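Entry for zinc ion complex. Fields follow.
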Amino acid sequence: MGDVSMTLKLPQSMDECIYFTRRKLEEKGSAVAWVYKEKCPKCKKALMGKPKDPKTGKTKIRATEYVCPSCGYTMEKGAYEDTLTANIQYTCPHCSYSGEHQMSFKRKKVQLINPETRKKKSADALKFPCKKCGKDILITKKMK
Ligand SMILES: [Zn+2]
Ligand SMILES: [Zn+2]
């Protein structure tokens, strides 16, 4: 078992993504995760994106839907994002193995325990097993 070559393509620009994050995972681990925009499921001609303000031409970042700029097909934010694929490059926080993983961007609720207070809380996260040691790796949404 040598090094695994990295095959996932990192985005050239944030415009290609609906999600991009770079994280430190505990003491030794780290991860980069990103989700590409995908084509309209209806006309397949253009990438779905947040709607633009017709007056200013600026993207409405807080919009709760995605729109196809070609045919106008609209999808609710969560429903669209659940259809996308998350790309992850990671260094395992448990065994230091470096690998890649692809999974549905449909995030699941996980229980987290704060190491200082021992309090439990639930958070949305991408959760997948390390290819080498099989232990779970979690990439949580940003904490408030
Ligand atoms: Zn379309
Ligand atoms: Zn591992």
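NOTE: The longest helix spans residues 77-81.
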